[in-house]
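Suppose you are handed only these lines of text.
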Amino acid sequence: MQNSKPLDAIVVGAGIAGLYAVYRLRQMGLDFQAFDAASDVGGTWWWNCYPGARVDSQSYVYQYWFSDELLEEWDWSERFPAQGETEKYLSFVADKFDLRKHYEFDTRIAHASWDEATALWTVETEAGERYTARYFVSCAGMLSTPKVPPFEGHEKYQGVIAHTARWPREGIDLKGKRVGVVGTGATGIQVIQTIAGEVGHMTVFQRTAQYAVRMNNERYTHETFQKWRDQYPELKDKVHHTFAGFAFDFYLPAWSEHTPEQRRAEMEKLWADGSLAIWVGGYQESLVDPAINEEVSEFVREKIRAQVKDPVKREILTPRAYGFGTYRVPLENGYYEAFNRDNVDLVDVRKTPIERFTEKGLVVDGKEYEFDVVILATGFDAGTGALARMDVRGRDGRSLTELWNQDIRSTLGLQVHGFPNLFTVAGPLAPSTAFCNMTTCLQQQVDWVADCIDWLRVHDKHVIEPTAEKENWWVSHHDEVANATLLVKTESWYTGANIEGKPRRLLSYIGGVGNYRDICDQVKESGYEGFAVA
Ligand code: NAP
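From them, the structure of the protein bound to NAP can be written out as follows.
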């Protein structure tokens, strides 16, 4: 199919950002078409339906703020809701605002190219359908392209291999099965703690130990949730100004202003809160000062050690490869206890990596481990992955994939020089899941994009693109902030280190959500200074 009259916009993604983008563009009266590769709305929360998937942000801030009616109608049942409830919420939003009708589901975009002469994007689906549109709004997700490790013999293996981000919707029967799990990031931790009691036997292959913090979950009834609903006006404002888009912020004084006893007491308080506040609401200097970071790291290590009975497993599970908080802190609920079970083994694959698949399982250090199911909780090609595999061509046919294969650049994470009218919500170099409560960041970024398109219409303009100078300014500012932290020293998806050959740069802006919002607002208020507008 080819649309006869060019559309105003094409939107990719039916997750938190995509649904909100569709809502905003429709409100503005735009003619647009939206797509998602999934069969329904939900984005991350549709794909990641693996056992134990759960939100690590408090429900009362992990939501949309744009409709008072929606806020009134939806009750969260837990402080940290499970994937099913979050997916249900997004489905409720789609129904309430009649958003599904704007989507073609089960449709992946294969190519997108900018035509200078007509100032239009042509977007082609994998099935060969072509659409032309003025604006191309990608809400394709920061963590949506699964990373599958290139173990040899993949095709030989006779059992089931499942990547957590491509978990079958009908589930996998793990009862009594021999299961291997590769990966102990935020995802692997949730899977392991959830299936340990169900599987016959589980072997966990760990390369890097994590600083997982005990989640303090809480169930709500309609009545008990009311305490949060009563605070919505305050929360709605607050999340836009805190460092990481949560309801809490770095509230503690400088490390040196507290005695060791006071620090211990504060960290115990943060630990007991059982949320990400211990990370992005504790001692901020812990993210920049190695000595302080080591003390905080040791506090968490102590908590971990206390939970693991077996000394060999305890040693393997004690994180040392990096400092606390320099990579996403996962919340756990029974992860360390899972290793106290007789049916759960742990194999350290840091020095002796997984070699290959065989017909029956995996080989490490010459030893074959036999499994009925191998679960790959091996993460994502983050930030750039979704757009890079779409084959996006900008001015003069330049390739976004090639650009990002050499140097990951953007302006505010929202546009890229050389790619006019392309908007990259949750793109690299914007604050995102690494250091942001995602719903806060995504709504702010979608608002910026929608306001920008609206501004162009009001001013009878049709094309916008950041200049090379503006992009250099943003990249330098981003790097300056990033390089002052310990994060750039840790090997993880945060810096692209999990993907072989990917250029290194901190993928998320770490100057603070409130600060980023102010910068975006200034750009808008200046009439998009530093952007070429035509
Ligand atoms: P991840 O943090 O990148 O973890 C991937 C894991 O797979 C790591 O343990 C990694 O080890 C391991 N791995 C990769 N390749 C391997 C190989 N060849 N051999 C052995 N191990 C290998 O991915 P993730 O756990 O899916 O989490 C990604 C992000 O998604 C999180 O950081 C978080 O932002 C988000 N997330 C959020 C939630 C939530 O809110 N509840 C839940 C899950 C995920 P190395 O560390 O040694 O590379």
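What can we learn from it? The mean pLDDT is 97. The radius of gyration is 23 Å.
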